[in-house]
Amino acid sequence: MHDAGPVAIVGAGIAGLTTALCLARQGFEAEIFEQADSLKEVGAGLQLSPNASRILIELGLLPALEAIWSEPESVALLDGRSLRALASVPAGSFARNRWAAPYGVLHRASLQKILLDAVAAEPRCRIHLGFRIESDPEAAIDRAMARRPSVIVGADGIWSRTRTSIPGVGPVQFSGNIAWRLMVPRSEAVPLLSEDRVTAFLGSNAHLVAYPIKEVGSFNLVAIVGGKAGESVWVGKDSEERRRELATALDGWHPKLRMLLTNATATTYWPLCTVGDGAWHDGTRTILIGDAAHAMTPFAAQGAAMAIEDARELAHCLAESQDVPSAFASYDRARRSRIDRVRKRAAFNRFAYHARGPIRLGRDLVLALKGSESLAADLDWLYGYGVPGQ
Predict the structure, then answer these.
(1) What is the CATH number of domain 182-273?
(2) The predicted structure's pLDDT at residue 36
(3) Hey, which end of the chain has fewer CB within 10 Å, N or C?
(4) Mean pLDDT, range 142-156, rounded to an integer
(5) Using one digit for the tens of pLDDT, what is the confidence trace for 205-227?
(6) pTM score of the predicted model
């Protein structure tokens, strides 16, 4: 389908930039439209599991990633009350050997800059900043481009404006969980937090994930607790009231962890919303990817990874199909079952991570019996995506 017109992409986040690069590698011209006047991402770390990093490696980005990210030696689960070790999944060289790609952690802004630099160096890609869609996304894009795009890709996140072009899209809904992003300087975090691992502390109705962000000399912390959305579903700065809610959610947790959170900086919270099942495209020209199509809870740490997988699969389907409707149908077939399985894994992790009472005791026993190798094998379908034979 390479004789078709250019592809328009709405959104210059990880999903949109990766899509542009994947399309360019397949010979397509891609124009990215972003409402922000400048690109900047603040206060968030990111885990890149092997299924995502493998695609970025295909795009030639490994040297840039290796220059800034950390490759933890393991992902460890600990009890939030006692700090007792519950289980550990090896990463580091083990991940490279087993899943043929590394497991890395870095600042989200760092990945966005790497992708942006690659887009800027790609002759087939152009980016337009300060482009705001007020109404009728397709008409706005058509007016902005010299040639009518053959495809419009909505990569503009959970509050996508592109979604208004597609009948039957899934509803945006509050998940019942609040996420807190926090940063802690390295000097205050060690030895409680380890620089060579991702640590997940588990507790009743809450869990906390921590890992080092080498570029800023800090640890990224994400605390996810059950809660109410309140008046707004947008990201908010913390307040005394919100801090009390977090402290209450972590009541009974180990004093060292509670103190760590009390002293954390760059604190924001946001109610976690998801996009339910529904249409991802209109069958003719417009398609949604990433969070715009299927935003999920972060309990499997796969939000960005699914967007990166979407980008590669969409570019492949457009290159291999005779026309756009056929490409969309192929993409739908390829991604529906995958997204559904990852959603189910995230739901299972939420159940396991936030367990209490007898269920928590059963969880701890199962984790102890399984062992690291068995836990890694359980992830082959997820992390080994795209590896021949997996």
Answers:
(1) 3.30.9.30
(2) 83
(3) C
(4) 93
(5) 889 999 999 988 899 999 998 87
(6) 0.94
